[in-house]
Amino acid sequence: MKYRFRWLTGICLLATALLASCSNRTELDDSVAQLSFSTLDGQQIAVADIDSPLFVNFWSTTCAICLAEMPELASLYDDYTPHGVKVIAVAMPYDPPNDVLELAQAQQFPFPVALDLKGDAVAAFGPVQGTPISFLMDSDGRLVKRYVGAIEFDALRDELDKLLELG
User: Fold this and answer.
1) Are 118 and 90 in contact (CB under 8 A)?
2) Which residue of 48, 91, 101, 113 is most buried, as measured by CB atoms within 10 A?
3) In 3-state terms, what secondary structure has residue 61?
4) CA contacts within 13 A on the Cβ side of 21
């Protein structure tokens, strides 16, 4: 009986941890609005200046899932940029900047790629403990959805269509 209790307690703790890590927070820290992303081409993109939906994707050069979904992210960018949606791919602070630059150039990413050298974006959006993790914000800067792990792009497109009142 004693071992059964420990087993059940362990399962409950694991389930709680998994649910917490996959939760869809409804608010972002105020520091997100103060962020300014520095892109590989030297552009500064201030979150406060964006008045349309924003999709922020945290990725890593060593993350197979991240790299596999980049073509679909490029397609999303091409399809929704004309509607005002902003897409930013943020490399993790531990990614060497030269590796990020080489990969972005080799893959010809059409969307802005930002470096988070000091970890300011990771801290503001936190917890960003692994990749991929993405955030969809509405035109008022409110969190619409948090995506942990691989992105379900059909669902993301549906969410964007609702935000933009396209369908």
Assistant:
1) no
2) 91
3) coil
4) 13
Q: Which two tokens stand for residue 137?
A: 């914000």
pLDDT in tens, 63-81: 999 999 999 999 999 999 9
Tokens for 80? 């929704």
Output the CA torsion sign for 102, 72, 86, 128. Answer: negative
Gyration radius of the chain over CA positions: 17
Burial 47-67 (b: 16+ CB within 10 A, else e): beebeebbbbbbbbbebeebe
Given a cut of 70, the residues of the chain with pLDDT beneath it are: 1-27, 29
Place of tokens 């005002």: 84
CB–CB of 150/69 below 8 Å? yes
